[in-house]
Structures are given as structure tokens and as C-alpha cells.
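Encode chain A's predicted structure.
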Amino acid sequence: MNISRWIILILDLVLVAFAFVGAHLLRFNFEVYPADGFWYYMPGIYLWFGLRLLFFLIFRSYAGVVFQTSIEDARRLFFALLGPTLIILIFNAGGYGPKDAYLLPYTVLLIEFFLSIFLLVSYRGFVKVLYMSNFSQKEKPKHVLIFGAGSAGMTVKSVLESAGAGRYAVKAFIDPSGHFVRQRLGGLEIYPLDKLERLLVTAQIDTLVFADGSIESTVREHVVDLCLKEQVKVLSAPPFQEWSEGELNLRQIREIRIEDLLERQEIKLSVEHIGQELGGKIILVTGAAGSIGSEIVRQLLKFDVKQLILVDQAETPLFVLEQELNALKYQGRFEIVIGDVRNQTRMRKVFESFQPHVVFHAAAYKHVPLMEDNPSVAIRTNVLGTKIIADLCKVFDVEKMVFISTDKAVNPSNIMGASKRVAEMYVQALNQSSDSDKQSCKFITTRFGNVLGSNGSVIPLFRKQIAEGGPVTVTHEAMTRYFMTIPEACQLVLEAGVMGNGGEIFVFDMGESVRIYDLAQKMVSLSGLQVGRDIEIVISGLRPGEKLYEELLANEEETLPTHHEKIMIAKVRSNPLKMTSDQVDQLIMMFDEQENEVIVRYMKQMVPEFKSNNSKFQSLDD
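Encoded structure for chain A:
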């Protein structure tokens, strides 16, 4: 406890003591010594004061910031004062006081309770008003427009005006639904969406706050674009379920991020079906410490799985994930295994020890330029690692293996994408073998594009460059990419894994592609900076293996719909297991020679659509 909190606690105790004296005087008509000789049982006073101190400490009524006192602080004060009063009342009723007397008189006790509430709440309110008054004299309050009427908008208004300490002055509401237009809320006008652009100028708005997290992404992006055009700061309140103990506070209203603009509507999953398929089962996740693997783990823990086996070779990220899951009270529901998917002996021991029912294989090398310079390592991890896991799934009669692939496997232009396509081919061929020899394991592949915030994603890189003052580097002005949030991608992986019957390659609806140059400009603007004045965007040129545009399906492929609107099945060519297995074995053996050109040439024979782009291996295509 710091010194300021000690002072608040002491002041609270002094005020309740004053309240006690005041209660005595009121009860006995301001006679210090009542004429009838009535006096107190001193141990009762000691008990009352001790209970006051104890309950202040229990409820931490002294811990709040006085000049930001909220309803929650008043609630804590009420219960901290009520507890001792009830205890003394119970003691009185039970006859625990001295003979023919009470620990404390009933009337004194009740008057003191109400006086204490009045004094403690009043002085906090006085300090808050005094602080807000002084603060508002030093700094002009920001003009705020709240996007969203109704209860959420009113709550945001209350938080900004009370906890904001005079920093914000709410001017109006915008109602995108049109239900509340031409009405008033909290004494302020409610305007329709089409009045937003004019209102930003006429009301001299400094800040817009999204009060409702369920606004359609297209509307949200349009609003943000208008705000950035007028250099209006954009904030966002969290959805109701994320409020702290059911109450919104100022700290939870944060600046809007680029991820918020790229998010789409919440995916509706077959939660009951997924729960039935995965409930009570042992599930192994490789690459569990990575951005995709760790989110799959978080999603799986929401279901009644028997045990999760988290496999990764990265010690520190695994440790961090373990601490996170322990903090969420998931102890006993998962097992941490440090292991390399390229080590067959280690992986066999893992399968023998845990006997998993379902495997999610997310372990992979995925950085395009790095793999372009290290083809042998890409083969060893992305192909050999997948082969070892898939073979063990068949040997140990695993029910399903879900292989996490990438859109870069479609018409690959780089080593990373080609290595994942080779792995896809092997997994598919193995599934055909399972069908023919009546093995029960079903092999399923899922493909998706870039995920927001993943390790190596462009958004964390841009954010770091902006924080460092620039420049922001974009490889090509025309480059576009598909984006999906990590939770959204992993939810679709679970859904596809459950619906799969084996042999499918599931592709996901990635929405509209995003121009990376526009993304960089918007991130700079959201940071309160201007391109060209505060920070530069530099075109650095395509990196080895990069495409300008990414595809989700190959030219020869077609898709079939599924019961989920965001999941399709790609129809791809299949090869016999014997031929594919021989080719994969031959490719893996080339690792020992470390002849990159030989490795890449053989990959191009296996994957005819593999055409290198902006790479030293382009000569092999000629």
C-alpha cells in the first residue's frame, strides 16, 4: 500500500469517528453526558472501531483513485460500512453486551451508519469535482461524438463524462440503425448516419467513440475513413461481455486498431457438433506454441476434451503458453511436450505415451524469403515433419489428422508454398491408402491466407516501424493480400476438421483482398500521423518468392460448397500413394547433400505448377 492509500484509510477512520460522535450527540440532544447517566460499554466501542478498520481492509475501500470515484467505489464503501453495523446489531440482539445494556445503542449505531456513508461518499465526490474543475481550466475538453445510441451509448457517455475528469464533452450520438433518430438521449440529439460527415465539421469533433462492437465491418470502415479524413481520433468500447465485472471503465475504451477494421462478422460455428466430435478425446497439437497452434489450443479448451498434448520445439514460447493456460485455470487439462516433429523417435514415443484420438498438425516453417534461401530446411520441416506425423497417425490408428496448409500452396511461386503443396499431396495419398486398407484414420487439409497478428505478419512489422518513426516498407505498391483473424481462422479449422470425411482440402472464404499500400497508409493515420509529413512509406521491392496477388485455388481446381458458407472443398488431382511416397522419400534424402538447386529442380518435377517468382531459381523454369 502506498502512502496516499494510507492517508485515505486514516481519513476514512477519522470520518467514521466523527460520525460516531455526531450520532451520539443527535441521539442525546447534543448532551455530551446524558442526564440519565447512560454511558457506553467501552469494549463495544473498541469492537466497533476494529471492525470498521477490518472491513475497510477487506473491501479495499481506500484503494480507489479518489478523483475518479465511480459507482463501484461507492458500492465497496457501502458494504464495508454495512458489515460492522450488522455484526454489532446481531451481538446486541443476542445479548452479548454487558448486563442490562448493549454493546452500542441501536439508535447510535444506525445514525452513525448513515452519517458515515454521507461523509465518506461526500468527501470523495468533493475531491472529484474539485479535480475536474481544476483540470478543465487547464485543458479544453475534447468534443466527442458517440457512434451508437441506446444503453451502450448512454453508458459510454456516462463513463467519459465522469471518469474522464473533464477531458471529454459529448456533443451528440449517431444511430446507424435509424431507430432513435430525432430523439434525445441524455439531453443530446441523436443523428442518422448520413449526417456524420457534416457533424464532424460543424460540431468540431475531436474524437469519435464506437459504443457498439456489433457494427458491420463495412460501416465501421466507412466511418473510420471519414474520421481520418477530418483528422478525428477514433476510439472503441469493448462489447458488453468484456466489461470488467459488468461495468465499463475508461481504461477499457481504447484506440481503434487496424485489426478491428479488417475483422468480419462473427463466425457461427456448429458448437454442439464440434463438442460431440471432440468431447472426451485426447487431442495432439503440433506447433502448439505458434500463433496458429496456440489459438487452436485455446479454442479446443472451450470444449470438453479429455486432454490436450501441446508439442513444440520452441521452449520459451511453450513456457509462456503454459503460464497463460495455468492462469486461466486449465491445469490438468493439458500436457506440455518439447519435441521436434522431424525427430521420428521422439514423435513415436509421444504417440505411444498419449495415444491421441485427433491430431492438428500446425508445425511448419512459413517465412517465404527465409525458406527461399534454405530449401533443404523447408523440405525437412514442412515435408518430412508432416510425413512423420501423418505416418504415425496411421500406425497408431488416430481417428483424424487435420493438416494446416496455406494459400501459398496454390500455384506456388516460392519454396515455402511448394513444400506445403508436396506435404498436401502426401497427406491426400495417405488418405486414399487408408480407404483401401480399411484403416480408420481420416486425413484432412485446410488452407487459408494471412492471419492478423501472426508471427511474421505484416501488421506487427508496420506497427513496429511506425513506433520507431519509420519508414514503413511496402514491397510493391500494387501488392494485395487476404487477411483473416487468428481466432476466425482457427474456428474454421475446427469446423472443417469435424466435418471432414478424409481426403478433402478445405479452403476458407477469406473475404476481399486488401491492398498493402492502403493498409500501411491507414495504419499511419490511425496512429495520429500523416504520410509524407510525419512518416514515409518506402517501396522496397518484391522479396524472393513473393507474388503480387495470392490465390486460394489453382487454375485447374473447382470447389464444392459445404454446410458452412465460409468453407468450401477444393477438387484437386490426386496421385497414388506408392508414386507420391517414393517421390517424397527421394526429396527428403536430398537433404543430406545440401544441393539447393537439385532439391528445387526435383520439387518442380513433383509440382509442375511451381513457377519461381523474383527468385534465383527462376532459371530452372526456363
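The CA atoms of residues 442 and 501 lie 6 Å apart.
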